[in-house]
Amino acid sequence: MKKCSEKEIFESIPVPKAVMTLAVPTIISQIVTMIYNLADTFFIGQFGDPCMVAAVSLVSPWFNLLTALGNLFGLGGGTLISRMLGSRDHKDIKYVTVFSIWGGALATLIFSAGTYFMRQPLLNFLGASTDTYGYAQDYLLWTVVFGGIPTMTGLALGHLLRSEGQVKIASTGMMLGGLLNVVLDPVFIFAFHLEVAGAAIATALSNAAIVLFFAAQYARLRGRTAVSFRLKFFSLHFAKPIFSVGLASALATILSNASNMVMVHLASGYGDVPVAAYGIVKKIDQLPLNIAMGFCQGFMPLVGYNYAAKNYNRMRRVSVFSWKAAMLVSICFITGILALAPQILRLFIREAETRAIGAAFLRIACLAVPLSTVNFLISYTLQAMGKGLQSAALTFSRQGLLNIPLLIVMNLIFGLYGMIWTQLVVEVIMLPLSLGMYLQVWRGLNR
Question: What pTM did the predictor assign?
């Protein structure tokens, strides 16, 4: 970024260099983010109590809905800003950013308050047992009720920074939060003897630190960024274009977590040990998908900018290069996971039954990752082009029409392990549909 101007990155330098210039910092930040997501499970797992691990696994899908809000407002606003920059429309960017920040904060406040007042039936729905209920409630209160607004705001601010090409700052903020969480987890869990609540408090404080870092960076960049916090620019005028794209990404997160909730709820019928094992596996197989998200956050500003500038050939080269690179990385990780699954599980919990079930789950679940990566990236390419309806259709088909019903059917027919195979079945069905949707949009551009 120091050697090339933002205009050169968006318009002229070779596609692989442009993508990697923007994507490498976001990939690193995603890896660090994944490590801090794993940190809670890792440190709690050192107690050797499957009930503690299961409690975190039960709440994680609900906590991840904050990512949906961050994507709805931050990613939706960010892609709109990239298209505005590509079409040389700079004057309205401040209205987009103010709505994304403050509108997102208000929506999260409502979500967090609803979570607090409905926590008992919510935890029962998520599958909390007598042994896990207290731990799950502690984790829910600190991460979602008290930590909800900082979590969502940090995500949104990161997306808005990336949309202007400030990738290193956005990535540094996310890495700072991740590293801080890794440091604070053992302090609150072991030194203060707070166990699961300690992990949740560490997560909430780390996300608050991300917001403070981004606020300080915006103050430093004053005059060099179009992002504004000033409420006088709050307007609903750009809500529709923000939501038209952000909704697809939010829908993907919501339905993905709905699938996880269904999976955890069904698995709880087999006891707390399968829930704990599935929770660990779900965190581990997110690593290649987090790398794919790093590619997304790197190439989406490039795709949106060149789409708005009508440089469709460069836009297509950016997309295809990113897909190939992300799939190659995914395959490398899957090879390692297949070979080392028992050793990986041992890092997180030493209790023999949970470890054995988790290793079997992990080897099955990771088979879907390369196909998931391609389907995932195609959907985000369409979002960057402003094709929110097409992206939402793919997302709803993948997670709503296919995944959740198939989880129930596979559980009825094949039992616990049938549910783990479901994701691979879904991705095989969706790949030709995703490619077909992208080719249809591409042909329309050429016409």
Answer: 0.75
